[in-house]
Amino acid sequence: MALKHSKQRDLIKEFLMTRKDHPTADVVYMNVRQQNPNISLGTVYRNLTLLADIGEIARLRLGDGVDHFDADTSPHYHFVCTHCGSVIDLEMDDISEIVAQAGANFDGHIEGHVTYFYGSCSDCKKKELSS
Amino acid sequence: MALKHSKQRDLIKEFLMTRKDHPTADVVYMNVRQQNPNISLGTVYRNLTLLADIGEIARLRLGDGVDHFDADTSPHYHFVCTHCGSVIDLEMDDISEIVAQAGANFDGHIEGHVTYFYGSCSDCKKKELSS
DNA sequence: ATAAAATCAGTAATAGTTCTTAGTTTTAAA
DNA sequence: TTTAAAACTAAGAACTATTACTGATTTTAT
Fold first, then answer.
1. Mapping DSSP to helix (H, G, I), strand (E, B) and coil, where does residue A108 land?
2. Which residue of A82, A118, B29, B62 has the lowest C-beta tally within 10 Å?
3. Gap between the Cα atoms of B31 and B112, Å rounded
4. Using CA atoms, how far apart are residues B61 and B72, in angstroms rounded to an integer?
């Protein structure tokens, strides 16, 4: 299982670090191909999964049926626009105290929570108003 | 678009109301077939989607790649066991004040939030301890 | 240098869900 | 109560995102 270096994995990680918009595997693939046209989609998926498993990136599941990836692994929350699908970081305080609330009347062990917010992003909100 | 009655839809809704474990489309299909062996999986999917769209049931996306359905549409939170995959209702107060927190430094419009918790359910917790 | 292990590209396979088609029910109105 | 339009159905094809398999290639510890 010893991890070996791979140019493909470096490329994927480097690309992801340049982006703040939480791209999907397919978007990563299309972009990374511009540097390495021979890279395969399977390699992109495998490495995204591997990087997520070792904690170097985060996998986001936002209910749209597609996994998004984020090079920013610090705890933070996301907003999903239900009109254009864009995913945006939110500036807000940590709310993980809700885990204690959830555990108060629960017999199992709660390890964590998944929270994201949805609505209209700034751009889509403007378009709605002007129509 | 006027909704017409359908025996299949009734059957699906009735089945879902008997369950508190948030079954998937496939589980609904397998069970509903015992009453109507000719029902098709597509019909189950179509009606679950329709019922969710008109608000009679809730569609839950819990990050496991499968949609779960819930006849209880009142606002409440869910726990997902990462070991056995079971989905359990949590008894806890409403936490939708987090929406205001999230909107404080955000330029768009936040309509709602998705939150669920994960960890080990009561049964799986016991099994871990005894191993 | 070399060889075991990890990785790769390419492609087939899978899972969950939606779409298409041709025929069947439902329902409002004649 | 016929009737005909609209909604609905079963069956299965198609689609999307993802994972698994293959034999060849790269990495790295010796």
1. coil
2. A82
3. 33
4. 15
CATH code: domain B1-74 is: 1.10.10.10
The predicted pLDDT at position B1 comes to: 55
Three-state secondary structure call for residue B69? strand
- Residue A74 CA to residue A61 CA, distance in Å, equals 16
Sign of the Cα torsion A101, B128, A61, A94 reads positive
| pLDDT digits (tens), chain A, 131 positions | 589 999 999 999 999 999 999 999 999 999 999 999 999 999 999 999 999 999 999 999 999 999 999 999 999 999 999 999 999 999 999 999 999 999 999 999 999 999 999 999 999 999 878 87
**CATH number of the structural domain B75-131:** 3.30.1490.190
Enter the pTM of the model.
0.94
Domain boundaries, chain B: 1-74, 75-131
| Two structure tokens written together for B79 | 């726990």
User: How many C-beta atoms lie closer than 10 Å to residue B44's C-beta?
Assistant: 25
**A119–B105 CB contact, under 8 Å:** no
Q: Which residues of A touch B121 (CB under 8 A)?
A: 107-108
